[in-house]
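Postdoc handover notes: sequence design on the structure in folder B. Input tokens:
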């Protein structure tokens, strides 16, 4: 008889997620939907998000200490978010250089500096494992960059998306995580006309989440997710355990600068502001629906006398889609998760535009 007992079945455990994508796509907003998140914001990207955060670390030692505080139980949270890995690596490299009393990582020669930085960055992953062992989910965000890639057995090279970290640190993160997710814009290309020589034109810019490896990006997951999902937290929510079920939900960031928020619960239709200047009249939900505006959004617009042009202007000002993009072409998740769910904030911006003299 062995002294070791054999167990079987799945084991419930916190999840470690790495999410990377181009700047401004909404990585921080996405991470803010995890259970009770607390951010360690190394780059100041959460300033316009209503989230809980620890002080921005000014050194590598401070970053490691903040992570240790979470594992000690001194920071109440359900999910620890490192925002971002590439900026955390900068602190790591600064610490390695200061310890060796050199001015830059290249001063070590023969790539030794990056090897030392890789070993030092491993301390952060070890510290995050301690956070996981105490029952907290961990999310690490990273920026994405396009790099040249050459297969060992192929001739030539091609462009692919990679994490914006060093070549030594990126493999550590890929191996460490349960889910490596890549967020990007998926542009639809279509003919501008029916003529044979008609030019192609791009339309839309739907945000998607890739969960499996592709020649043009790295991704993986251990939950059997589809290869492509809408870029919203609901797509992976079933994979993420809540360490504190029944607790009050964290503040939900809505209509922030970097990207539209995922689908929150619908809110009641607010009353229109008292006597706003230059309010259009005679707008009906049926007329808007005839123009292709989704029903829920059309009812909100009609109730507050909002024209499609006014809505397009606000969406364009926030940088989500071009101001001349018709409302009927907006992605369904953007309409329901951002415009409808955050209608009070949308209406406030529309009314502000009406108040501005031109």
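Designed sequence:
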């Amino acid at each position: 008889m062995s002294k070791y007992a054999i167990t079987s079945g799945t084991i419930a455990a916190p999840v470690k997620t790495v999410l990377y994508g181009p700047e401004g796509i909404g990585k921080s907003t996405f991470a803010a939907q995890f259970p009770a998140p607390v951010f360690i914001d190394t780059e100041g990207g959460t300033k316009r998000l209503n989230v809980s955060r620890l002080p921005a670390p000014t050194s590598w030692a401070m970053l490691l200490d903040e992570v240790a505080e979470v594992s000690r139980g001194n920071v109440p949270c359900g999910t620890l978010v490192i925002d971002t890995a590439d900026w955390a690596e900068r602190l790591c490299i600064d610490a390695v250089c200061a310890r060796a009393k050199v001015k830059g990582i290249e001063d070590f020669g023969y790539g030794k500096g990056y090897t030392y930085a890789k070993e030092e960055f491993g301390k952060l992953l070890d510290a995050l494992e301690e956070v996981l062992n105490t029952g907290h989910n961990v999310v690490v965000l990273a920026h994405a960059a396009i790099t040249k890639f050459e297969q060992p057995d192929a001739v030539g090279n091609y462009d692919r998306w990679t994490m914006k970290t060093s070549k030594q640190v990126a493999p550590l993160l890929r191996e460490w995580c349960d889910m490596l997710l890549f967020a990007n814009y998926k542009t639809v290309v279509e003919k501008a006309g029916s003529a044979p020589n008609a030019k192609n034109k791009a339309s839309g810019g739907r945000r998607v989440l890739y969960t499996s490896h592709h020649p043009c990006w790295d991704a993986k997951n251990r939950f059997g997710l589809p290869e492509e999902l809408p870029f919203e937290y609901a797509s992976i929510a079933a994979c993420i355990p809540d360490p504190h079920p029944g607790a009050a939900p964290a503040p939900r960031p809505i209509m922030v600068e970097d990207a539209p928020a995922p689908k929150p619960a619908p809110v009641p239709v607010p009353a229109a502001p008292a006597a706003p200047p230059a309010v259009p009249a005679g707008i009906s939900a049926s007329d808007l629906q005839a123009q292709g505006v989704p029903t829920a959004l059309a009812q909100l617009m009609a109730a507050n006398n909002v024209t499609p042009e006014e809505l397009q202007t606000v969406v364009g000002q926030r940088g989500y889609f071009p101001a001349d993009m018709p409302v009927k072409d907006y992605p369904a998740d953007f309409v329901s998760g951002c415009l409808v769910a955050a209608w009070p904030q949308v209406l406030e911006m529309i009314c502000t535009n009406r108040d501005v003299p031109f």
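Context for whoever picks this up: Residues 285-355 form one domain. Don't rerun without checking with the PI first.
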